[in-house]
TrEMBL record:
Protein name: Uricase
Binding, 5-hydroxyisourate: T64, D65, F167, R184, V232, Q233, N259
Organism: Bugula neritina
Catalytic activity from the UniProt record: urate + O2 + H2O = 5-hydroxyisourate + H2O2
Main location: other
Listed EC numbers: 1.7.3.3
Enzyme class: oxidoreductase
Pathway involvement of the protein, from the record: Purine metabolism; urate degradation; (S)-allantoin from urate: step 1/3
Length: 304
């Protein structure tokens, strides 16, 4: 067995540890009117030394089980609020409670997408149905004596439109077999994340809804006329430009749009005059798929 390299010749550049998959359901009770929030939380702490790694000395280690318990204790003491606020509250707790913790990172994801049941126009007081449209999340990183760095995002937002999407005049080479598509189905599963440059006066829940609406508006266009999409790249870019135009506190946004293909089923193979290709029957194909990604950042942060 080869000898280990001496300690004097190496250095730990980064280290952190924590707990993932901490599941939490919080019930807000106002008499017989109840609201629920379900989260999955991950925590990561960075300590002011590496003796746990170098010498196996655990005296400074805040156990991951303690971090898990802290999620529930903080929820009981302060409530949960929106993901960004709950993540900041947890970061603040870790840094104020443990003097040897130099930074904390907390990620909070929504789970199950609970919505209140309704019947004949009346909202149920304490019954809910799971109807997730996508996953909302927030990630907060904070160093000791520094302001928190807040990012928010969404994932799994699946959308489809049946027309006004094309892909033509692309680069061709001897390996190209793809024909021009003048009109095609466009479907994707949207992931988006944005960073805040200023937290002053931010309504995180309202901003998250605004960002989601801006993405959907850019994808679909007006209900009657729609909007043309000559490439997924342009749809992505215009979505990011719209968000940065609407929310001055957002400094950067990145998106990922994989193609979810729906190919028209070729009825011509049956040699039956009664069966024509009329863009009614399609074959869903999820793999392989293209993926389009880009990050948009302000050239210079606007003065608020």
């Amino acid at each position: 067995m080869a000898a280990m390299i001496p300690d004097s010749q190496v250095k730990i550049t980064t280290s952190s540890y924590g707990k993932t998959g901490v599941k939490l359901l919080y019930v807000r009770r106002q008499g017989d009117w109840h609201d629920i929030t379900e989260y999955e939380v991950s925590t990561l702490l960075e300590l002011n030394d590496h003796k746990d790694y170098i010498r196996g000395d655990n005296s400074s280690v805040v156990p991951t089980d303690t971090q898990k318990n802290t999620v529930y204790v903080v929820a009981q003491k302060y409530g949960v609020g929106c993901p960004e606020v709950f993540a900041m509250t947890l970061c603040r707790h870790f840094l104020s409670t443990y003097s040897h913790v130099v930074s904390a990172r907390v990620r909070v994801e929504t789970v199950n997408g609970w919505t209140r049941m309704t019947k004949e126009g009346s909202q149920h007081r304490h019954a809910f149905i799971s109807s997730p449209k996508c996953t909302r999340y927030a990630e907060v990183f904070q160093k000791r004596n520094r302001d928190p760095e807040v990012a928010a995002g969404l994932s799994g937002l699946r959308v489809l439109k049946t027309t006004q999407s094309s892909f033509v005049d692309f680069h061709r080479c001897p390996n190209t077999t793809l024909p021009d598509a003048e009109d095609r189905i466009l479907s994707t599963v949207i992931s988006a994340e944005w960073k805040y440059s200023d937290l002053t006066g931010v309504d995180y829940c309202a901003t998250w809804e605004l960002v989601q609406d801006a993405i959907l508006d850019t994808f679909a266009g007006p209900p009657v006329t729609g909007i043309a999409s000559p490439s997924v790249q342009l749809t992505l870019y215009d979505s990011e430009r719209l968000v940065l135009g609407k929310v001055k506190q957002i400094s950067e946004m990145k998106m990922s749009l994989p193609n979810v293909h729906y190919f028209e089923f070729d009825m011509g193979r049956f040699h039956n005059p009664a069966l024509q290709n009329t863009k009614n029957v399609f074959l869903p194909t999820d793999k392989p798929s293209g993926i389009i990604q880009a990050t948009l950042r302000r050239n210079q942060l606007s003065k608020l």
